[in-house]
Design a protein that fits this description.
The structure is a single chain. The protein has 689 residues and is mainly β. The chain has three domains: 68-256, Sandwich (Jelly Rolls); 260-545, Single-stranded right-handed beta-helix, Pectin lyase-like (Pectate Lyase C-like), CATH 2.160.20.10; 604-689, Sandwich (Immunoglobulin-like). The strands form 13 sheets. It has a ten-stranded parallel sheet, with no helix packed on it. It has a nine-stranded parallel sheet with strand order 20-23-26-30-34-38-42-46-50, with helices on one face. It is elongated, with a radius of gyration of 33 Å. The chain starts with 11 loop residues before the first strand and ends with a strand.
Length: 689
């Protein structure tokens, strides 16, 4: 049984000032203690469409436990009761009242006990306890032993727990409808027989319990803001009594449960996480180590942005942030601060969010996230962050580790000759990148996609493209440590020197596609395809866009050298959550027939078709970087960007469905087209009006 610290009756009130928890006062019975903005107009969806459904977050307990009151009766000398506790007796012969004793205790040296006498009722009353407002519920636990008269199934003597919220005028059994409580452990085990017992005919504890056992009671949130007095009440009838009748109580703890569900986009809030308003910052501050923070489904059923106005969000406890989906929630640093700062020794599991608008200044690394502990990022997007130090999107340092899965790191940058446009890995632990896309990042020095200088990095089933470094290794740069690359595309990156894609000594797990291998060694294993500066290898990728799933990806074309030339390395889905491997019977396989990179092409079948075409200006010129939307019958949509010559393509469209295809451009207007899909469509073209 868990022991509570010896502290008598102690209450501590905490105030939240500028997002930090600080002690405000101690003593007394009041309070408690806690033991994408700026989207490109071309990327905006057409009116009336909704984002694809996000990945469902893991089931989680979203409640934090807050100690309101605790008493173990050890701060006084027997037989005295602690301050504020009282005892009453009705009927019977004196004494017997409740008193402290050293004879037996759950937490030595003291517990409180009462003996029995015929036709009497003895009560132990707690001090008046102010229950904090805005709580989701309460939980009272205590340890007990007892010896009450019982003959067969009939209970004659017993004990009950009652509650008053009117200053002690009226008491009700805690399980009565008037209170609404229910036991989750150590519940009432009998009903007092009709007779002379003063507590008859209530449900109660009866019989013998020789060793301390915990009883735990859940109470409704409707008690929030009221003042509670608890009464332990023992009753004996007038016709016999057990040998050595007694009831012993110890280790009383009252906690409040706070719903950590984020239901507001404000920052920082008033410092109190409650049903009326719980901001992300308040939820993080309130949560205990190991808690999970979810987000209100009603609010985040449409895209929302939390803009930080009180600086970065520090995470100095083990914590899970289960976002509603990267396309539903953006957390912005407002171009004034980074978004998350994970403390040393702590583990942060972050999923289903977009981290954007982060900025670290004065040589600080990690524009979006700085990880000094252990970061597990999944189903998320890190985009549009800037660091005046290493790691435009993420900076991992210290003895910790990092895992990035099913995520996209794009459009981040460093300034002032620093490395790692997407992220910089200086962590001494292991770093894994799986089913992820690193695209469009810029390093002011080297490692446009990412750079590592410590630890062991493994990259599997990922796509690293379109990154830029001013002084070398537009894709991946390795200093010290190791990088193992498996079934990954590293191509189409740029720099101002001669090493656009990879630089350093790599370990290949095979089945990689490297556009320009100049400047790197190690890519000579089974299934590796490499190009050179004179003959770079083009993976024939589409633009970064919404190809289904919760995060943006680069689709591969039907004649890409990555098609069916990879190995899944045990993965059963790609970054979008679609089946991997998906064999194209028209293409000879290498490995297990998976595609190389984060994207697995889903071969068109009778139930899954393709729509493709070209977007042009009025004079017939291909329009690059226009956004094409395909709206499905259920209102969800897919998006892609047109390529250099205006081409676009959608895969996996359900046969027999009717879809609306729309082009959105800053400069031109296009008429939407409604299409009934019964076969592959290769020439659904759009011309500017």
């Amino acid at each position: 049984m868990k022991k509570i610290r010896r502290f008598g009756v102690t209450f501590v009130f905490f105030a939240v000032i500028a997002g930090a928890l600080t002690a405000a006062s101690s003593g007394g019975a009041q309070g408690f203690r806690r033991t994408a903005a700026g989207r490109d107009p071309d990327s905006l969806p057409p009116a009336g469409t909704v984002d694809p459904a996000p990945v469902k977050p893991p089931a989680a307990d979203s409640f934090a436990s807050v100690t309101v009151f605790a008493e173990n009766f050890d701060g006084v000398g027997a037989p005295a009761l602690p301050a504020g506790w009282t005892t009453q007796r009705t009927g019977g012969a004196p004494p017997p009242f409740f008193a402290t004793s050293t004879s037996a205790a759950d937490t030595a040296p003291n517990a409180v006990f009462t003996n029995g006498s015929l036709n009497s009722s003895n009560s132990l009353l707690s001090p008046a306890i102010a229950l904090p407002a805005g709580m989701s519920g309460f939980r009272l636990s205590f340890a007990q032993t007892r010896n009450f008269e019982v003959i067969g199934p009939i209970c004659f003597d017993a004990g009950i727990l009652e509650l008053s919220t009117d200053g002690g005028t009226t008491f009700n059994n805690v399980t009565s409808p008037a209170v609404g409580g229910s036991f989750t452990a150590g519940a009432y085990n009998s009903t007092v027989s009709a007779g002379s017992n003063p507590i008859s005919p209530s449900q109660a504890w009866c019989g013998s319990q020789s060793t301390f056992a915990l009883s735990t009671l859940s109470l409704p949130g409707s008690l929030s803001g009221q003042t509670a007095i608890f009464r332990w009440r023992a009753g004996w009838d007038n016709s016999g009594i057990a040998a050595n009748p007694n009831w012993v109580i110890d280790s009383v703890v009252l906690t409040a449960t706070i719903d950590l569900t984020v239901n507001s986009t404000a920052d920082p809030g008033d410092g109190v996480c409650n049903p009326a308003e719980c901001t992300l910052r308040e939820a993080i501050n309130t949560a205990a180590s190991g808690d999970t923070i979810p987000f209100a489904a009603a609010l985040f059923s449409t895209p929302q942005t939390i803009t930080l106005t009180a600086g970065e969000l520090p995470i100095n406890k083990d914590l899970t942030i289960a976002g509603p989906g990267a396309n539903r929630l953006s957390i912005s640093g407002n171009n004034a601060s980074r978004v998350f700062n994970i403390g040393a020794g702590f583990t942060a599991n972050i999923s289903g969010v977009t981290i954007t608008g982060g900025r670290s200044n004065s040589g600080g690394g990690g524009g979006g996230v700085i990880n000094n502990g252990n970061l597990n990022l999944s189903g998320s997007v890190v985009t549009g962050n800037t660091a005046a130090g290493a790691g435009g999107g993420v900076f991992c340092q210290g003895t910790g580790s990092m895992s990035i899965a099913g995520s996209t790191i794009s459009g981040n940058s460093t300034t002032g000759l620093f490395n790692g446009g997407g992220f910089q890995n200086n962590c001494q632990g292991t770093t894994t990148i799986t089913n992820s896309t690193i695209s469009g990042n810029t390093a002011s020095n080297i490692g446009g996609g990412f750079r590592t200088t410590q630890g062991d990095v493994t990259v599997t089933n990922s796509t690293i493209t379109n990154n830029t470094a001013l002084n070398g290794a537009g894709g991946i740069s390795i200093g010290t440590g190791s990088i193992t690359v498996r079934n990954t595309i590293v191509a189409g990156n740029q720099n101002n020197a001669t090493i656009p894609d990879v630089a350093g000594a790599f370990i290949s797990g095979g089945f990689n596609l490297i556009g320009n291998v100049s400047g790197a060694t190690g890519f000579n294993q089974t299934g590796d395809q490499t190009g050179t500066g004179g003959a770079p290898l083009d993976p024939l990728l589409g633009p970064l866009g919404n190809n289904g799933g919760p995060t943006p990806t680069h689709a591969i074309s039907t004649n890409s050298p990555a098609l069916d030339k990879g190995s899944s390395f045990g993965a059963t889905t790609d970054q979008r959550g679609l089946v991997r491997p998906r064999d194209n019977p028209a293409v000879p396989n290498a490995g297990d027939g998976a595609d190389i990179g984060a994207y697995e092409a889903q071969v068109a079948t009778a139930a899954a078709l393709t729509i493709a075409g070209r977007v042009t200006t009025a004079d017939g010129r291909g329009l690059a970087n226009a956004t094409v939307y395909l709206t499905k019958p259920d209102g969800s949509y897919l998006t892609v960007r047109t390529g250099t010559f205006g081409n676009y393509s959608f895969e996996g469209i359900e046969a027999g469905s009717t879809v609306v295809v729309t082009v959105v451009s800053k400069r031109f207007t296009f008429a939407p087209q409604v299409v009934s899909v019964s076969e592959n469509i290769k020439n659904l073209d759009f011309t500017a009006l």
